[in-house]
Amino acid sequence: MLLLYSIAAVLTIVQGVPFTFVNNHPSTIWVGSLGNAGKQPINGGGWEMAPGSQIRLEVDPSWAGRFWARTGCNFDGSGRGHCGTGDCGNVLKCNGAGGVPPVTLAEITLGGWGGNDFYDISNVDGFNIPVTFVPTDKSGSGYHCTAAACTANLNADCPNELRLIANGATVGCKSACLAFNTDQYCCRGNYGTPDRCKSSAWPKNYPAFFKQRCPLAYSYAYDDQRSTFTCSGTGYKIVFG
């Protein structure tokens, strides 16, 4: 009887957290996943999703990392190729490589402090397509068990100096760090602390462009902390587009 109880307990511990990925983008996307240090990428690090499709995956309850959409990809039969945005080393299965900015990130830490999950949408690496991150089994208010999202199409009115253009179309909106690579815009060197890197003091407050259109997403490295959401005991849905 004790043995049966122990087996049941183990099964309960290793049960995964259900994640549903949905492609509402009008074109095919190729999702990328990257685990934090010591965490394996989900589903090999990448997979293809046709418009209107969805996929459900089980994620380890202690996993932490990020997901993003790659666009404009072309892969051969061996899974090698290139993406217009979010590329991760010219392969379908990112397998430990992050997405090349500009890219919209969906980030999560499962089972963090106090047993809570912490999740957010980030434009710190810029923007390529809208993303929504929402709990599926619980609802709440404020920043607890509600949707973290960047639903605006920032490419449409991205400042000209931040635009990533391919074949005459804007396919991404760069961060100021990526566009100009200065210590101030990248919050490094003499600007590497929150008190010394405030976007309001920059020559141009580019994060304000992102924050005004996506107020629930992070806009730069030392953005306010109000864009982190918490929940627990739930699965999650990530909607691209």
Q: What is the fold's blueprint, element by element?
A:
Layout: H1 2-14, E1 17-23, E2 29-35, E3 46-49, E4 54-59, E5 64-70, E6 74-75, E7 81-82, E8 105-109, E9 117-122, E10 131-135, E11 148-150, E12 163-166, E13 169-173, H2 176-180, H3 183-186, H4 206-213, E14 229-231, E15 236-240
Parallel strand pairs: 1-15
Antiparallel strand pairs: 1-4, 2-3, 2-5, 5-8, 6-7, 8-9, 9-14, 10-11, 10-15, 12-13
TL;DR of this structure?
This protein is of the alpha+beta class and 241 residues long. Helix content is 12%, strand content 29%.
List keywords for this structure.
five-stranded mixed sheet; 29% strand; 241 residues; Thaumatin; alpha+beta; disordered N terminus
Could you explain how this protein is built, in words?
This protein has 241 residues and is an alpha+beta fold. The protein has 4 helices and 15 strands. The strands form 4 sheets. The protein has a 6-stranded antiparallel beta sheet with strand order 3-2-5-8-9-14, with no helix packed on it. The chain has a 5-stranded mixed beta sheet with strand order 4-1-15-10-11, with no helix packed on it. It has a single domain (15-175, 207-240), classed as Thaumatin (Sandwich). The chain is globular, with a radius of gyration of 19 Å.
